[in-house]
Amino acid sequence: MPPFAYSLALGATLALAACSMSQTSSHSLMEWPDLLERPQPKEDATIHYGDDPYQVVDLWLPEGKGPHPTVLMVHGGCWTTEVADRTIMNWIADDLRKRGIAVWNIDYRGVDRPGGGYPGTFLDAAAAADALAANASRYNLDTSPLVATGHSAGGHLALWLAGRPRLPEDSPLRNGSPIKIDAVVSLGGLPDLVEAARPPGSGCGTEVVEQLTGGRFEDTSVPNLAPLGVDQVLINGLKDRIIPTAYAEGYAAPMRAAGDDVKVRMIDDTGHVELVAPETQAWAVAVEEIEKALLHRHSRESRDPGTRGSD
Fold first, then answer.
1. How far apart are CA 243 and CA 232, in angstroms?
2. Per-residue pLDDT tens for 183-208?
3. Engineered SS bond to 136: which of 40, 119, 141, 220, CB 3.0-4.6 Å?
4. Which CATH number fits domain 14-300: 3.40.190.10, 3.40.50.1820, 3.40.250.10, 1.10.20.10?
5. Could you tell me which residues are beta bridge partners of residue 183?
6. How far apart are CA 115 and CA 126, in angstroms?
7. Whole-angstrom distance, CA of residue 224 vs CA of residue 219
């Protein structure tokens, strides 16, 4: 695979520049080098779901035979391959592995790659997610329940993956049999693409949303797929300068009105990087919500064995 695409130099990309410039004013906030210059933990296996170098998934397996509870993980980076790839999630993937949770950490072609954008980026995310169902028995992965978590642009894709069963019948993004996602934990996500495309936008800028969607929001922006019918938790840093904090409640309100259970948790003294750093308060909250979702579903099914089939 090509080397990790995140540049540590200030100004390498709009997103990194904005992040670095905004966070240098406060020593309490992490900057990207604080995370990326650490030793990299290593995945247990890499699975290819296509021919492109970014059409791959890294699997993180806990010790023991399993079956292993599983999290589907989606990286961010403004949907742009040159900004980030899946390895930015390695530290929290390793943390979940140590906690006995398997991680299916997907990659996909960004809007800057041949075949990326609309519909390619979405079809890649969908194929990578569905590859979990095809490989679950091989690696003894328990996907009932399945929790998806994503950071930044990955927060959008994690929610979108949960909404795939509600895609319009004529959408080019409909394909296969979508793997069932039971809960989503979004970390500083951009769930509403209509809002993200409205100036001034986020640290990703507004142009990238046009590249991603081609102006189509009916099958790309999650609120247009409401209700998703899955529990959703949005975790955001109150000092995040990349993703406006207003995005969370701005998304949650109409989703709740449509009937979804959406929780918003704002974390003090937290920017954008802390959301994917395993020692932080923000990640502790994320783990709490992930474990709660896994346990909650299992407890429901133990009380009612027919629960899964009735969803």
1. 18
2. 999 999 999 999 999 999 999 999 99
3. 141
4. 3.40.50.1820
5. 147, 231
6. 14
7. 7
Provide the 3-class DSSP secondary structure of residue 194.
helix
Summarize pLDDT for 4-22 with one digit per residue, the tens.
Answer: 333 332 233 333 434 333 3
The maximal CA–CA distance of the chain, rounded, in angstroms, is 54
> What number is the average pLDDT over the span 33-42?
97
| Torsion on CA atoms 72, 124, 240, 146, rounded to nearest 10 | -20
Q: Please give the structure tokens belonging to residue 49.
A: 């779901």
Assess contact for 289 and 101: CB atoms under 8 A.
no
Cβ atoms of 125 and 117 within 8 Å: the answer is no
Core vs surface per residue 14-26: b (16+ CB within 10 A) or e: bbbebbbebbeee
Tokens of 30: 């992490």
Closest CA to 117 of 44, 207, 181, 243: 207
Task: Give the global pTM.
Answer: 0.89
The type of residue at 17 is A
CB 154 within 8 A of CB 75: yes
| Amino acid at site 124 | D
